[in-house]
Amino acid sequence: MVSKLDGYARLGRAKHPQKVLKRKRDAEDPVVLEQRVADFNLKEVDVKNFTDLPLSLPTVSGLDASHFKILTDIQAKAIPLALKGADCLGAAKTGSGKTLAFLIPVLESLYRKRWTSLDGLGALIISPTRELAIQIFDVLRKIGRYHTFAAGLVIGGKSLQEEQERLGKMNILVCTPGRILQHMDQTASFDVNNLQMLILDEADRIMDMGFQATVDAIVEHLPKERQTLLFSATQTKKVSDLARLSLQEPEYIAVHEAAPSSTPSTLQQHYVITPLPEKLDTLYSFLRSNIKSKILVFLSSGKQVRFVYESFCHLQPGIPLLHLHGKQKQTARLDVTTKFSAAKYSCLFATDVVARGLDFPAVDWVIQLDCPEDADTYIHRVGRTARFERNGRAVLFLDPTEEEGMLKRLTQKKVPIERINVRQKKQQSIKNQLQNMCFKDPELKYIGQKAFVSYVRSVHVQKDKEIFKIKELPLEEFAASLGLPGAPRIKFLKGDSVKELKNAPRHLPSSEDEGENVDGRKQPKEKKKEEVRTKYDRMFERRNQDVLADHYKKMIEEDDEIANVDDGLGDADEDDDFLTVKRYGYADDIEGLNSSAAPVSKPRLVTAVGKEPIIIDSKRREKLLKSKKKLLKFKGKGTKLVFDDEGNAHAIYELEDEVQFKERGPAENQRSKFVEEERERVRAADAVDKRLAKDKKRERKEKRRAREMAEREAGEEVHVQLGASDDGEIGSGDDAEEGASRLVKKLPKKRAKKWFEDDSEDETRHAKKRKGHTIEAVEEPETLEDLEALASGLLG
Question: Is the pLDDT at 6 greater than 60, yes or no?
């Protein structure tokens, strides 16, 4: 059997050979089984075990091998109705066994119809999250191990092409909404026209606003004649939802509506009033006190999950930590769920991606650090513990502004919850440690800023404003509790005041010269006297939509008694500033200078073309303006011109006369003519380019051929004739020496000695080869004896 990661499994290759399964299937007539289902009456039969239901032998064997024997309430009421082909809406508490309530009807329906791979897709099971889809697929493989259907898992995170190759062979598909819609739109071999059953697990989450458009698009691809099953812990009866899914006289099954509580009776539920800045301190103290527990902590956003996980990993509370959110890759998410399920003691920080349907074994605590968006989300979160009649505990952290509204919502949903207090002796503060870590690690600080913004955004977008009052939250203190030096600016909280801030005057009002407008905004008063303000003053006084932080305002707010222009020539005791900027050249300043001060050069005006007069009020500026390059920015901008082939100047862009344009005919005809002319020009240029390319290729080929011929001639063996006379006799004496010297110049160098040759062989060896009157030597003759030996070799 192929593993579930491949998204494909053949249900029926676990224990028995195919032949045995085929005999068992043939022995049980589907027609007889169909009659048993038709004759079954739920009111007359007391159903307690799976053997009491009219199920096929492969299904019963799979349930028995998976140790499923006793029916739960939702299973006892939903399975018989689904077996008869009715549309069902099932609502039951978390951990009540809703998965088997729709998987068993799927297997039985396809079995009775003798479904094969040639019939195509028979059942489509849609889950809101990948983790829940994987869990459903695992249960399907267990109970369907003796069936011969092909089941697939399509959840994304893998190559689309790999899934497309196998999708056409599937009988049962477990999927998420987005991925299956992508296949419906892009996979040609994916045919859903023969679909028999559509199942939506956690239907209220699938049909909410987040998946509404996707579900509508999926339903449009499906046939109208089908059976539809909807299951969730918090089910609704909205007419619009039922109409969108094309349900036909659905049966509503709610086994726990009359129960005093919407949550399991074995679940202990408490809440703690914790101010927002103290939540992380309380959570850390709680983990330190429960290191021998299995804890699931819910937060409102993935960025918060990452920050809390990273910071707590540095703090080391003494318990293994894991984190899970929707932005992780599929392999990482699967690895985290597997580790947390197998762990005995662990803490998992997660978002609502694991709040629905997932079955983590033996979870002791469910901590909701952030308030859930509604009571239904609370019920799903706490449902991760106290499953299948086991015990569990849940704690909800509430800010004082959230207490009244959230408790009212929980009371309406019949959720029993009690308040508890935190022992101050065990409370630990991690604020200073977080600040130290954020100071040393810029990346952690950046994650903390993102976590802060994501939390504020999650509160801002909530619909229930009776619970979530963002204006009453202490955001500055909350940012400090995360270790941040200050609260990051939240753009989406400005609202309609953005335009007012943008159009507000840029003057920074002081405490004395500011008034108040009708709308409460500060308005600067009229100045009493004309003040001299430089560009530096204007730059530092500019608000620019509150870009400057508060400490910048403190830097630029000065007493009005201090002169705005200080020439630095007065009494030193009267100047309180440590650093001052000297400014000369203004008329008011020159008149007010002390007579004992050093003389200042009189400012002069320099005019530039197209610009206002420039005041030269310092030697430095005068020196800079002597440069032609510096003066360019004060001169008027010229007009760029282009020259045609005849040398006439034209502007870069020139508009043609409209009358002349209309005289040449309609615009569409001119366009077609222009396109045709350009096409011909491009075609001619292309022919020229091809011809040039051929010529260059031919030239390169000829050069290569000439180079090869030269190398071949140079590599041929050199024949040298030593002192040969006309009668064929070999000369001697000086002629022999001259011939030998010519031979040595043309002979190759001594070859390298081989590894198997010794020195004696090398000394005695001389490569000699007689070919007519030619000789080939290796070593250069140095003495007369060598020349005689060379001559004797020539004589034979």
Answer: no
∠ Cα 143 128 160 (to 5°): 85
pLDDT for the residue 532: 64
Q: How many CB atoms lie within 10 A of CB 684?
A: 10
Residue 448 has what DSSP assignment?
H
Mean pLDDT within 255-277: 86
- The structure tokens listed for 620 are 């430095």
Strand-pairing partners, residue 270, are: 395, 418
Read off the tokens for 718: 């050199």
| Apex 468 CA angle, 374 and 451, nearest 5 | 95
- C-alpha 171/C-alpha 167 separation (Å) is 9
> Which residue pairs, CB below 8 angstroms and at least 24 apart, start in 113-120?
113/30, 113/196, 114/30, 115/149, 115/171, 115/196, 116/171, 117/150, 117/169, 117/171, 119/171, 119/194, 120/168, 120/171, 120/191, 120/192, 120/193, 120/194
pLDDT score, position 731 = 47
Q: What are the structural domains, with CATH classification, of the chain?
A: 4-254 (3.40.50.300), 267-448 (3.40.50.300), 501-556 (no CATH), 565-600 (no CATH), 639-716 (no CATH), 734-795 (no CATH)
Query: What DSSP element (H or E) covers 392?
Result: strand 392-398
| Alpha-carbon span 789 to 768, nearest angstrom | 11
Q: pLDDT value at position 400?
A: 95
Residue with tokens 């159009």: 503
Q: Residue 413 and residue 405: Cα distance in Å, rounded?
A: 13
pLDDT at position 81, please? 93
Which strands form 123-126's sheet, in the order they lie side by side?
Answer: 8-11, 149-154, 172-175, 123-126, 197-201, 227-232, 88-91, 251-254
- 773: tokens are 């009157």
Residue 321: CB partners within 8 Å, gap ≥ 6?
309, 312, 313, 346, 347, 349
Q: Which one, of 521, 527, 554, lies nearest residue 540 by Cα?
A: 554
CB contact at 8 A, 720 and 742: yes
pTM (predicted TM-score): 0.59
Q: What is the residue whose two structure tokens read 């509150």? A: 546
How many helices and strands in the chain, by DSSP H and E? 30, 21
Neighbours of 622 (CB within 10 A): 14
pLDDT value of residue 429: 94
pLDDT exceeding 90 applies to what percent of the chain? 42
pLDDT over 70 at 431, yes or no: yes
Q: What is the pLDDT of residue 83?
A: 94
Q: Taking CA 296 as the corner, what is the angle to CA 295 and CA 300, rounded to the nearest 5 degrees?
A: 145
Please report, for residues 240, 411, 464, 549, 730, the alpha-carbon distance to residue 727 in angstroms, rounded to integers and kept in the order given: 122, 133, 124, 111, 9
Task: Determine the Cα–Cα distance for residues 295 and 321; give it in Å rounded to an integer.
Answer: 10
> Encoding tokens for residue 146?
């003796």
Q: How far apart are the first and last CA of the chain?
A: 85
Reduced to 3 states (helix: H, G, I; strand: E, B; else coil), residue 587 is helix
Look at residue 9 and tell me whether its pLDDT is greater than 70: no
What's the rounded Cα separation, in Å, for the pair 177 and 193?
Answer: 18
